[in-house]
Design brief:
By secondary structure, this protein is α/β, with parallel strands linked by helices. It has helices spanning 37-49, 100-103, 107-113, 143-152, and strands at residues 2-6, 24-27, 54-57, 78-80, 84-88, 91-96, 121-124, 134-135, 138-139, 156-159, 167-171, 174-178, 193-196. It has four helices and 13 strands. The termini are close together.
């Protein structure tokens, strides 16, 4: 199975042309810039129109308009994950969004603790602490998330958030992918991560 991983497109998704073929496209959040409903609707329309057999997305800290929202009307092969999962070809994908309302309370830590132990592909917006999360002298990742990832050992962990750390890294049995699509100064795109599992 080939997974195309995008993240942090910040309302510039329509500039992404000639994306490579894959079985599943995953967007790990920050598809809007200002968190407006119009931006979110435009992204979902674009995503639905892409020719991938399956498409999965979660929200990032910029996607505030979807906090608490129930999304209806997506195509059957488009999956919005919000502390929930979808199973595709016997592979369990689980997604945890990054809403600021959760981050300023203990809810985000509880969301991480609730990630099922049988998750094969974990999708978060935030990186785990110390893995593709360093910028300006700071590790922006979550210690609670790192702890849970070390416990469950997913085959693949997809995230974004830290634009300057775009890339793929294998650590133990887990492949980590920071799919931040826009570079650090929001001017150009990084090539999407294409991962075989």
């Amino acid at each position: 199975m080939t997974i195309l991983h995008l993240s942090d497109t910040h309302s510039q998704h329509r500039r992404l042309t000639r994306l490579p073929d894959a079985d599943i496209l995953v967007h790990s959040g920050d598809f809007t810039m200002n968190g407006s409903e119009q931006e979110a609707i435009d992204f979902m329309n674009w995503l639905c129109d892409l020719p991938y057999p399956h498409k999965i997305f979660i929200c990032g800290n910029h996607d505030a308009c979807l906090y608490g929202a129930k999304i209806d009307g997506l195509d059957k092969n488009v999956h919005y994950l919000c502390n929930s999962n979808v199973i595709i070809e016997n592979i369990k994908f689980y997604g945890v969004p990054m809403f600021m309302e959760d981050c300023i309370s203990d809810r985000q830590a509880r969301n991480y603790a609730a990630i099922p132990a049988d998750t094969n592909v974990l999708i978060t917006h935030c990186p785990p602490y110390g893995i593709l999360d360093f910028d300006d002298g700071i590790n922006y990742g979550s210690i609670e998330l790192l702890t849970r990832v070390e416990e469950i050992k997913p085959r693949l962990h997809l995230f974004g958030h830290v634009h300057k750390q775009h890339g793929v890294k294998k650590d133990g049995s887990t492949i980590f992918s920071n799919g931040a699509s826009m570079n650090g100064d929001y001017t150009n795109f990084n090539f999407p991560n294409l991962i075989e599992i």
